[in-house]
Design a protein that fits this description.
seven-stranded antiparallel sheet; alpha+beta; 127 residues; single chain
């Protein structure tokens, strides 16, 4: 399943998205992420979020970052990407199931919305 959110914003680059979204800053950027439990490196850590405690990976991708919950039974991952030509930042979240319980779907929709709200609050400082 896929879930999307878009933030209309002028002049935010992929590099700025990469600088902004670090494991350490995840709770600041998304209300569904309560805390960072540990950080092993720039790319690996552990967080506590709405679904529990998970190992997390962060990778730079072409237009931003991809974050994955490594030990999530649904293989939940999300990207935050700057689409400079369209003046938009996209949050794209996926799980490895074609169907899921309504409660879980609603929690993912809230998670993506929390990312949208957090980025809407923080990104103008970077533009």
């Amino acid at each position: 399943m896929e879930f999307f959110a878009e933030i209309d914003i002028q002049a935010v680059t992929a590099e700025q998205v990469c600088e902004l979204i670090t494991i350490a800053r995840l709770p600041e950027l998304c209300a569904s992420i309560d805390s960072v439990v540990s950080i092993q490196s720039e790319r690996i850590g552990e967080i506590y979020c709405v679904w529990g405690q998970f190992q997390v990976s962060r990778e730079r991708i072409r237009n931003g970052v991809r974050i994955a919950l490594l030990n999530c039974p649904h293989a939940l991952a999300w990207t935050v990407a700057a689409k400079t030509e369209e003046s938009v930042v996209v949050v794209h979240c996926t799980i490895d199931d074609a169907e899921a319980e309504n409660e879980f779907i609603e929690s993912i929709e809230e998670f993506v919305n929390d990312w949208k709200q957090g980025l809407t609050r923080v990104l103008p400082k970077y533009a």
